[in-house]
Design a protein that fits this description.
309 residues, 2 domains, D-Maltodextrin-Binding Protein, domain 2, EC 3.1.3.7, single chain, CysQ/Inositol_MonoPase, Fructose-1,6-Bisphosphatase, Chain A, domain 1, lithium
């Protein structure tokens, strides 16, 4: 079945399996206590878990799909990858998906996969493990089409206990989604999700302009978009250049798959082809399905937009 499925379907299905293994690596590193933290820049940490999880994902995908482009957040490593990290399985539910005709026969050279092996590293090092996600986004041409978000540490809402292997959410825009049940945010209120660790006066100005009833500050772009998917926030705004393409490709694809929107603060979608710049220079605005994206854009002050040209 796997080989008869379309290339896009196989990449997303394999990414689901690879992110589950990456999540196991992330838990193992934390349990052993050897994080080996490296400070790449201001508020930009890297741990042993980031490095190992990326090697797992990129090796697993590149061996199965040698002709696609894969870009990871961390520097490539020449270290030997343990055989148990190399995943060849593919998620059967994803493989059953029926794609729109224009996605059925994709040229591998038009595919760019963006990998953030551990989104929310700062929170991970602080023990706020529920903020952590593993992100694999699949772009066709310039557009984010497929996405996988894995939560290595996911608590059951009812029991409050961690699920053994975490949770994996996935989506292909125009084809379907799985791993979660979309919910609408509460009516009559406006809950805005934003950064926990990268705030400044510009970020605050953008939030204030939306007149929120509540502001939820959490780590990781993946975690913030999950709040939109599950009806726990109406919009996610980040008026800064702190985000990169590997932070937003997967969340954008899944959000669009359920009818939401993710753009920059000028209302344009980001380009995810392999020639593009990595930094999301014009900030982030994401809205849950049914939310008036244009209204949110119109509220962002001009001076904020000018800072993010």
């Amino acid at each position: 079945m796997a080989q008869s499925a379309a290339l896009l379907t196989r990449i997303v299905a394999s990414s689901v399996s690879a992110t589950v293994q990456a999540g196991k690596i992330i838990r193992d590193v934390l349990n052993k206590g050897g994080l080996n933290i490296v400070e790449k820049g201001k508020n930009d940490l890297q741990t042993e878990a980031d490095r190992c999880a990326q090697r797992c994902i990129i090796t697993s995908l590149s061996r199965q799909f040698p002709n696609i482009t894969i870009i990871g957040e961390e520097e490539p490593s020449s270290c030997e990858v343990p055989s148990e990290w190399i995943i060849t399985e593919a998620d059967q539910e994803v493989l059953q998906l029926k794609l729109p005709a224009h996605l059925e026969d994709v040229n591998p050279k038009d595919v760019c996969v963006w990998v953030d092996p551990l989104d929310g590293t700062t929170e991970y090092t602080q023990g706020l493990v529920e903020h952590v996600t593993v992100l694999v986004g699949v772009a066709i041409g310039k557009t984010a089409i497929g996405g996988v978000i894995h939560q290595p540490y996911y608590k059951n809402d009812e029991s409050g206990t961690f699920i053994e292997n975490g949770r994996t959410l996935w989506g292909i825009d125009g084809a379907g989604f799985g791993g979660f049940t979309p919910k609408s945010p509460p009516e009559g209120r406006r809950i805005i999700a934003t950064t926990r660790s990268h705030s400044d006066s510009i970020v605050q100005s953008a939030i204030k302009s939306l007149e929120p009833d509540e502001v939820t500050r959490v780590g990781g772009a993946g975690h913030k978009v999950i709040l939109l998917l599950e009806g726990k926030a109406h919009a996610y705004v980040f008026a800064s250049r702190g985000c990169k393409r590997w932070d937003t490709c997967a969340p954008e694809a899944i959000l669009h798959a359920i009818g939401g929107v993710l753009t920059d603060l000028h209302g344009e979608r980001y380009s995810y082809n392999r020639e593009t710049t990595y930094v999301n220079m014009r900030g982030i605005l994401a809205t849950a399905p049914g939310q008036p994206h244009q209204w949110y854009l119109s509220r962002i002050p001009d001076e904020v937009k000018q800072k993010l040209q």
